[in-house]
């Protein structure tokens, strides 16, 4: 029989329904695997006792005929989602020891559907990073290795712990958040699939904020179908979140028909950038050929403001972060420096509690919002953001989805780009535009580079059209025949 940790969520649900194994057995093998792969540092907080308790309750429900849609499925929860009674840190010293007394909407929906929480997954501090090297709790290690090279590789960021856990089979799926590519890039680096839905599709309530107009919850899993099942669970309107959209949630899994005949796939000419590696270009061309072979038509489209997307993002996101992170002062919760008067306590708490990347972005954001610079930087960035969004609207008048690479390279060695923040930020060059426009986008593993590392293709869709994104992604997954670790 296939190892239980090798099953997809879809296969595991079938096995549970057929009584091939119990939720407790399924959970226990994942807990055991977490011990074996402890060196990946994919989790900040393990919750084995809670997981087995939830699995046991799941078995009782299934035995009584009351099984829920995801009953008994063991998941990793990114440590940005507040979990009632379980430490939630955002991978920052400033929240070390913080135990929420409430549940985020996303995790509550998953628990209501019967999932088992294995633990809280590591991430870049406050979701700021592209390599999962800014966490106060240490780097996450990508379970993949280059051929003939034992160097430790980044899993991508910020949802690196979630992606590494799924790729290493120490979780069947995971939640993530995506602000500028933080689900899609780690998914590509770790050889799994991940989807960022339309902004507003999933509630942000109870999710620790980085940049409120960009942050969006999503999922990571080893198949497109598994992502569809997870996305179904976490989607929907939430009156507690003013940015949540009151939209009906379609049956995402039903969209995976494999039929894309007549679909028009847009290929953005601006994404063919100078210096892009040949193997990324070849994979992109291979993706085009796969979709054409499946009956779709490809056309070239233009997104003329693409070149402004990264600088726009790195004005807006830090500006919003500087405002959101002002609440961490050592008074109400989390880390507090024991230093004399109140002003000293504020200053030293924040100096010691935040890591270097977070402090860098707070400073950039505060500068962009300061008197005399607000109009020149923040307001101008918002105007450019609107132009980027309008580019996508115009492109989707001619096509159904866009196909692009997910990232400009495969996973790189930990520390390789650490001394150059700009080079790190360029990891998001293909993912940031869709985030600024609030569009659904998915990364699907589609091949390997010369060193044997996974590469991903990105499918971007119209707002609220996750169904077509999933449908096209499913076709790429089937035709690529990609096998994970």
List the helices and strands and how they pair.
Blueprint: H1 9-17, H2 23-36, E1 43-46, H3 48-63, E2 74-78, H4 105-112, E3 116-121, H5 160-167, E4 173-178, H6 184-190, E5 193-196, E6 216-221, H7 224-234, E7 264-268, H8 278-293, E8 297-301, H9 309-324, H10 342-353, H11 356-369, H12 374-395, E9 401-405, H13 421-425, H14 432-437, E10 441-448, E11 454-461, H15 466-480
Parallel strand pairs: 2-3, 2-4, 7-8, 7-9
Antiparallel strand pairs: 1-3, 4-6, 5-6, 5-10, 9-11, 10-11
3D architecture notes:
The chain has a domain of 329 residues: Amidase signature (AS) enzymes, CATH 3.90.1300. The mean pLDDT is 95. Strand 10 and strand 11 form a beta hairpin. The chain is built from 15 helices and eleven strands. The protein has 485 residues and is α/β, with parallel strands linked by helices. The chain has an eleven-stranded mixed β-sheet with strand order 1-3-2-4-6-5-10-11-9-7-8, sandwiched between helices.
List keywords for this structure.
Amidase signature (AS) enzymes; 37% helix; globular
The pLDDT mean sits at 95
Across the major sheet, the strand order is 1-3-2-4-6-5-10-11-9-7-8
What is the element string, with H for helices and E for strands?
HHEHEHEHEHEEHEHEHHHHEHHEEH
Shape field:
globular
In CATH, the architecture of the domain at 4-257 and 406-480 is Alpha-Beta Complex
Helix amount, in percent? 25-40%
CATH superfamily membership of the domain at 4-257 and 406-480, which one? Amidase signature (AS) domain
Tally the helices: what do you get? 15
CATH class of the domain at 4-257 and 406-480: Alpha Beta
| Strand composition percent | 5-15%
Distance between the termini: 18 Å
Rg (C-alpha, Å): 21 Å
Number of strands: 11
Class of secondary structure makeup:
alpha/beta
């Amino acid at each position: 029989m296939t190892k239980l940790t090798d099953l997809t969520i879809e296969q595991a649900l079938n096995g549970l329904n057929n009584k091939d194994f119990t939720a407790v057995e399924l959970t226990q093998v994942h807990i055991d695997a977490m011990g074996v792969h402890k060196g990946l540092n994919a989790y900040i907080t393990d919750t084995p006792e809670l997981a087995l308790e939830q699995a046991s309750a799941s078995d009782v429900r299934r035995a009584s005929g009351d099984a829920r849609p995801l009953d008994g499925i063991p998941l990793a929860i990114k440590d940005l989602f507040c979990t009632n009674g379980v430490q939630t840190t955002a991978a920052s010293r400033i929240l070390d020891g913080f135990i929420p007394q409430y549940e985020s909407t996303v995790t509550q929906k998953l628990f209501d559907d019967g999932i088992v929480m294995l633990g809280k997954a590591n991430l870049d501090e406050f979701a700021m990073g592209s390599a999962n090297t800014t966490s106060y709790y240490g780097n996450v290690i990508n379970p993949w290795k280059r051929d003939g090279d034992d160097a430790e590789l980044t899993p991508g960021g910020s949802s690196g712990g979630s992606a590494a856990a799924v790729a290493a089979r120490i979780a069947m799926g995971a939640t993530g958040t995506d602000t500028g590519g933080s689900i899609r890039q780690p998914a590509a680096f770790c050889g799994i699939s991940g989807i960022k839905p339309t902004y507003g599709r999933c509630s942000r309530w109870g999710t620790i904020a980085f940049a409120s107009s960009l942050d969006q919850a999503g999922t990571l899993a080893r198949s497109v179908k598994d992502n569809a099942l997870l996305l179904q669970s976490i989607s929907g309107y939430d009156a507690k979140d003013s940015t949540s959209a009151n939209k009906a949630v379609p049956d995402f899994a039903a969209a995976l028909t494999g039929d894309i005949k007549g679909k028009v796939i847009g290929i953005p000419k601006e994404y063919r950038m100078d210096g892009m590696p040949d193997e990324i270009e070849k994979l992109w061309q291979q993706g085009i050929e796969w979709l054409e072979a499946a009956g779709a038509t490809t056309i070239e489209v233009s997104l003329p403001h693409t070149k402004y997307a990264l600088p726009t993002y790195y004005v807006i996101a830090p500006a919003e972060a500087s405002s959101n992170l002002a609440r961490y002062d050592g008074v109400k919760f989390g880390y507090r420096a024991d230093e004399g008067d109140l002003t000293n306590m504020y200053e030293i708490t924040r100096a010691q509690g935040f890591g270097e990347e977070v402090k860098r972005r707070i400073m950039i954001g505060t500068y962009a919002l300061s008197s005399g610079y607000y109009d020149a930087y923040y307001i101008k960035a918002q105007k450019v953001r609107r132009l980027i969004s309008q580019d996508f609207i115009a492109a989707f008048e001619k096509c159904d989805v866009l196909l692009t690479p997910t990232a400009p390279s495969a996973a790189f060695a930990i520390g390789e780009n650490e001394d150059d923040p700009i080079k790190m930020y360029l990891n998001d060059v293909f993912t940031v535009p869709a985030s600024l426009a609030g569009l659904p986008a998915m990364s699907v593993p589609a091949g390997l580079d010369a060193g044997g590392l996974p590469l991903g293709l990105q499918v971007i869709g119209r707002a609220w059209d996750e169904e077509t994104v999933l449908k096209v992604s499913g076709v790429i997954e089937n035709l690529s025949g990609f096998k994970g670790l």
